[in-house]
Amino acid sequence: MEKRMLFLMADGFEEMEFTAPYDILMRAGVKVTLASIHEDAMVESARGLQIRTDALFPEIRRADYDGIFLPGGARGVQNLRASEDVLDCVREFYENKKWVTAICAGPTVLAAAGILQNHKVTSYPANEADLAPYCKAYLQDRVVVDGKVVTSRGPGTAEEFALTLVTLLLGQSKATEIRKGIVAR
After folding, report:
1. How confident is the model at residue 185 (pLDDT cuts 50, 70, 90)?
2. Which one of the listed residues 104, 115, 143, 163 is annotated catalytic?
């Protein structure tokens, strides 16, 4: 059965935190859908990279996905956090026991959605004070998996984060295959 992940994309996203998970999940055979939370399918990264998403967020059938991913990037995360639709989507995925994943500042969106109180999490170091009061425990690990909530530190952990997602979605053998194929550590 094909696994499907929904990437919520907002202007100001961090490039490495988007591209590594996107590339690695696609290589593993996961169907990734990029959904713009804006009224335009084009989104622009923190450093001006423009990408065309697959769909606008309101057009997405949430039931079709096994999980959701929120990339970091200060401005991108501010845009995600400011959207009540995004927060509702995070809560819906969480309540339906689907994967809820975020990297860098992205976990602050999970805190804003009110889903972290029973979970261990990590994030970009500067966001620790924003998260610690809202989670079970704040860790400085590179990737933290607690139930169906997966969080990671930042651009330098994006590859490891993505390979962890492959392991969770498709198993260790697929993650090992992808790791060897891209010559990852």
Report:
1. confident
2. 104
